[in-house]
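Following the same procedure, sequence and fold were stored together, as reproduced here.

>
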Amino acid sequence: MPTDLPERSATPSPAPSGGPQPHDHEPHTYVPGMIIGSALVFLGFLTIFLSLSGGFEIDYKPLVLYFSGLAIWAYSAIANLTIRYTVVIVVVTLALAIAHYGEVHFWHKQVIFWATVLMVVYFMLTSAAPGKRN
């Protein structure tokens, strides 16, 4: 007997895609990592800045603090895996090199100061679209 009802298929229909998918959310460690990384970068940079403006010498520990904070921040904030791990490897290598060298010269502090200024200016002038991370 023919009817006007559509036929039922044996395969279940896919779930609606309007809701959040399991792979769309960020891991819960991103925000604390960004906070801790930013705090360590700030503490290390503050010591470097004060030694530049005050003219006193520092040992390698503020630079290692700065670089470790930068590595934690980069791991949490950069979404592109190639850029993320390149930044982390470069920063850890620089921290180990400074710790092995054991001495901080004036030009080391100048390079870190101006690189941080350029990094902050870059992130202030570029903004990501809503829901999109760099």
Remarks:
- Helices lie at 30-54, 61-77, 81-101, 106-125.
- Residues 18-25 have pLDDT under 50 and may be disordered.
- The chain has four helices and no strands.
